[in-house]
Design goal:
Strand content: under 5%
Number of strands: 0
Number of domains: 1
Shape: elongated
Distance between the termini: 54 Å
Order of helices and strands: HHHHH
Structural class: mainly alpha
Largest sheet: none
């Protein structure tokens, strides 16, 4: 009986949760790509890590574009973003004065 309830909770993902999982997935892929370039550079003893990224500027360009787009999107109000404490502030605000 408890397993059924647990599966129900897992199958009911909110759009905010799905967005967080998608972000985790592509950020993880970006990290592993950059880490792979770093490791291969260190194993091949090229000396300077920056040189290997200069040989393959596409990787850094993709990382830069992804995070620049994310920063721009944060300025646009969205229902998929969790407003967190802002909602609590509106709920718990005590009106004083007129």
């Amino acid at each position: 009986m408890k397993k059924g309830n647990k599966m129900n909770k897992l199958s009911k993902l909110t759009p905010v949760s799905i967005l967080h999982y998608v972000r985790l997935l592509y950020r993880g892929i970006l990290f592993l790509t950059v880490f792979f370039v770093y490791l291969t550079d260190r194993l091949l003893n090229h000396g300077n890590v920056v040189d290997s990224f200069e040989e393959r500027p596409v990787i850094l360009s993709i990382v830069w574009v992804v995070f620049t787009i994310e920063m721009i999107i944060r300025f646009i109000p969205s229902r998929l973003e969790n407003t967190g404490s802002q909602n609590k502030l509106d709920i718990n605000k005590i009106k004083t004065g007129e």
